[in-house]
Structure formats: structure tokens, C-alpha cells
Design brief:
Layout (H helix, E strand, L loop, with lengths): L11 E7 L16 E2 L2 E2 H11 L5 E5 L3 H8 L5 E5 L6 H6 L2 H5 L6 E6 L7 H14 L3 E4 L1 E2 L7 E5 L5 E5 L6 H4 L3 E3 L2 E5 H8 L15 H8 L4 E4 L13 H16 L7
Parallel strand pairs: 1-4, 1-6, 4-5, 7-13
Antiparallel strand pairs: 2-3, 6-12, 7-12, 8-11, 9-10, 9-11
């Protein structure tokens, strides 16, 4: 069990959600282990988090946990927690509470999804910089995309300030028309994250505990939530189907063919 830290007054950790089955992938392989450009999707996410100094990397496993554990077992700085049954993203993150209570997480924690291999380290760097400079309890990256179908929408108040994230199933027609979306790149002050998770409920259309509810709870507490429009539209795509996996793999291939330094 690794407790390595960066030589800094801050430490940062990451929780990667990797428990989903991925029914639409039509495979017994857990979704995050499907290869994108020859590597499991989740490995792209883990590598981006490691590049910005996250230790430990906490993998939340569930369906096909043995495959995920087998791939990463023995690597330094990796921790595993199990989510079974799957009761939502907030419930998944809360599975890491024992690590938090044992002091194994950093002062700030990224929360990322294992099915988003297009994530880039420089996007995470922008997220972390905004989080630290603004003194926020939580910071999220957003993107404005032409077709927001399937994504949580970012709702802002009359002054243009962040108000909440609305999941598509819970959105009104007016909210569904919003094109600023949530690509699920989050940074939290770790203690505030686990305090708010105690108060998340499942009173929504899916009957699940959403990590996205944490932001509104922190605002109600009078704490700062920062937003950075750091995710280019072409980086937003996550994978739910074999067709999307092929599209993502093609994007990764085009990146690998680009000149060095063209994007990290």
C-alpha cells in the first residue's frame, strides 16, 4: 500500500470510477478494460492523473473487478475499493471513505471516470490551478458542445455563476437546451467532499446517489465552487458503445501522429 506524496505543501490523490458493467459494449469485459488504441481505457485516465502528481490512484471496481485488479496489481501507488452493488457515482466515490479516514488521501482529490480516455494532463493542470488559486472547496471543468444529449447540463444563475449540475433524466426542456455540459472532471478539497457525501440523497429519476449533487450542497454551505471551461469539445466523448470506442481510438491515433508537444 503506497503512501507516497509529492514534495509540496499539498498532496493530491485521485479516485477513478471503474465499476460499471458497460452493457451496451456487448462484452463480458468490464467497460473500462476495453482497449482504446491498444490500451485499456482506464489506463489513459490513470496515466493522466499520475502525470499531474496524483498519489494514490484509487480505482473503484465492481463488475469485472478481477480484470481491473489483475491489470494494475503490483503497481506502486494504486489502491482498490469495491462498489457492489452500484448505487450511483456519489456512492462509488464514498467507497473510498475508509482510505480518507485512515489519512491515505491527499488534501485535494480529483474524481474522474474510467471510461473517458480522451482526458489530457494539461486539462487536469488547468483544473487544479483554478482550484488552488480560487481557494475553492470544489472545482469542475465544463465544455460547450454542439450536441449535449446524454450529458449533465451546467445551470447558471442570472449573474452567470454556477448554480448546479442537472442530470439529463432530471432536466426540464429548458435545461435540456443548455449546451454547457459536465464531462466529469472534478477536483475537491478532500475533507469537504466526504462531508458533503454524507448528505447526498437518491431523490432523483434514477434513484441513485450522484457525485454531481455535492457541488450544490457545498454552495449551500457557503463554500466556493469554481468552474473552468477547460475541456475542448473534441475531448468530451466518453465510451458507452463499440462505435464510440472506435471513434475514441481514432482520435487517440491522430494525437499520437501529431508532432511532439502538440497536445498532452
Amino acid at each position: 500500500m503506497s503512501t507516497n506524496t509529492r514534495p509540496s505543501s499539498y498532496t493530491r490523490s485521485v479516485i477513478v470510477l471503474a465499476a460499471g458493467k458497460g452493457t451496451r459494449m456487448k462484452s463480458d469485459l468490464p467497460k473500462v478494460m476495453h482497449p482504446a488504441l491498444g490500451r485499456p481505457m482506464v489506463e489513459w485516465v490513470v496515466d493522466a492523473a499520475r502525470t499531474v502528481g496524483c498519489t494514490p490512484v484509487v480505482l473503484v471496481v465492481g463488475h469485472g473487478a478481477e480484470a481491473v485488479r489483475g491489470h494494475f496489481e503490483g503497481r506502486p501507488g494504486i489502491e482498490f475499493v469495491t462498489q457492489m452493488p452500484q448505487l450511483g457515482t456519489g456512492h462509488a466515490v464514498d467507497m473510498a471513505r475508509p482510505l480518507f479516514e485512515r489519512g491515505l488521501l491527499g488534501e485535494e482529490t480529483l474524481v474522474l471516470c474510467g471510461d473517458g480516455p480522451l482526458i489530457r494532463a494539461h486539462t487536469l493542470e488547468a483544473l487544479l490551478a483554478t482550484h488552488r488559486e480560487s481557494g475553492a472547496a470544489a472545482t469542475l471543468a465544463t465544455a460547450v458542445i454542439p450536441d449535449p444529449a446524454g450529458y449533465g447540463r451546467i445551470e447558471r444563475d442570472a449573474h452567470g455563476r454556477f448554480a448546479r449540475i442537472v442530470e439529463q433524466k432530471d432536466a426540464t426542456p429548458a435545461q435540456l437546451a443548455l449546451r454547457e455540459v459536465n464531462p466529469s472532471y472534478y477536483c475537491f478539497r478532500t475533507a469537504d467532499l466526504f462531508d458533503a457525501l454524507k448528505r447526498v440523497t437518491n431523490q432523483n429519476a434514477s434513484g441513485e446517489y450522484y457525485i454531481t449533487d455535492v457541488f450544490e450542497l457545498l454552495l449551500r454551505d457557503g463554500k466556493r465552487v469554481s468552474v473552468v471551461d477547460a475541456v475542448p469539445p473534441e475531448d468530451v466523448l466518453s465510451v458507452n458503445t463499440p462505435e464510440q470506442l472506435a471513434e475514441v481510438s481514432a482520435i487517440l491515433a491522430s494525437r499520437s501522429a501529431a508532432p511532439a508537444g502538440a497536445g498532452r
